[in-house]
């Protein structure tokens, strides 16, 4: 099994940390892992993306042009990466700020209202964990226990008190995933 993922959005949305948590989780799942970030010089507001590859076999190259999964968090990333999803692949996106929704019919399109859910939980910083939970509901490529261990490894120790909130956010994402079957109809799964 090999899963090739692109996570893309604005800096400050937790794009790189979401990729890092997936990478740590893969290592703890005894998988081969590649984590390759790409971001502009801005700390927040600039574009950021990360390519994560999890595999049971050796990874020949971290550089990819097509992906099994694209997790999209802003319109610029949708414009850039929608066509990069392999036919039959997955596109998961947060609809806030997306004005041109995905139109492909040869991929599986899912939606998670992570901004709304994180706000309802009282902390917008857990936005990325809501998205990660939705992704893991679609494709449980790593065990949740390893995701929590990956979270501990990627968060500085002074923030470990937030791990229970992050775990709750993952579960909220899993419980509130929506799939877009047709352009005019969204169905909760």
Can you tag this structure with a few keywords?
Pyruvate-ferredoxin Oxidoreductase, domain 3, single chain, 29% strand, eight-stranded mixed sheet, 34% helix, 6 helices, 189 residues, globular, alpha/beta
What would you note in describing this structure?
This protein is α/β, with parallel strands linked by helices. The chain has one domain: Pyruvate-ferredoxin oxidoreductase, PFOR, domain III (Pyruvate-ferredoxin Oxidoreductase, domain 3, 3-Layer(aba) Sandwich). 34% of the residues lie in helices and 29% in strands. The protein has six helices and eight strands. It has helices at 15-28, 75-81, 114-120, 127-138, 144-154, 163-175, and strands at 2-10, 32-39, 47-55, 67-72, 85-93, 108-111, 178-182, 185-188. Strands 2-3-1-4-5-6-7-8 form an eight-stranded mixed β-sheet, with helices on both faces. The longest helix is centred in the first third of the chain and has 14 residues, at 15-28. The two termini are 25 Å apart. The model has no long low-confidence stretch (mean pLDDT 89).
Topology diagram in text:
Blueprint (H helix, E strand, L loop, with lengths): L1 E9 L4 H14 L3 E8 L7 E9 L11 E6 L2 H7 L3 E9 L14 E4 L2 H7 L6 H12 L5 H11 L8 H13 L2 E5 L2 E4 L1
Parallel strand pairs: 1-4, 4-5, 5-6
Antiparallel strand pairs: 1-3, 2-3, 6-7, 7-8
Helix pairs in contact: 1-5, 3-4, 4-6
Query: Number of helical runs?
Result: 6
- Helix content, binned percent: 25-40%
Largest sheet: 8 strands, mixed
Using the CA coordinates, give the radius of gyration. Answer: 15 Å
Quick overview of this protein structure:
It is built from 6 helices and 8 strands.
């Amino acid at each position: 099994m090999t899963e090739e993922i692109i996570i893309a959005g604005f800096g400050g949305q937790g794009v790189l940390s979401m990729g890092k948590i997936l990478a740590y989780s893969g290592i703890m799942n005894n998988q081969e892992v590649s984590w390759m970030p790409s971001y502009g010089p801005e700390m927040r507001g600039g574009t950021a993306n990360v390519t994560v590859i999890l595999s049971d076999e050796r990874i020949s190259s971290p550089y990819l042009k097509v992906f099994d999964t694209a997790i999209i968090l802003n319109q610029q990333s949708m414009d850039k990466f929608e066509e990069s999803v392999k036919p039959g692949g997955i596109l998961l996106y947060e609809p806030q700020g997306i004005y041109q929704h995905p139109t492909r019919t040869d991929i599986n399109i899912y939606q998670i209202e992570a901004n709304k859910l994180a706000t309802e939980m009282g902390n917008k910083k857990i936005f990325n964990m809501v998205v990660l939970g939705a992704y893991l509901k679609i494709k449980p490529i790593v065990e949740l226990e390893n995701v929590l261990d990956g979270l501990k490894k990627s968060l500085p120790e002074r923030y470990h008190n937030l791990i229970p909130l992050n775990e709750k956010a993952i579960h909220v994402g899993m419980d509130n995933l929506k799939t877009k079957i047709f352009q005019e109809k969204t169905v909760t799964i």
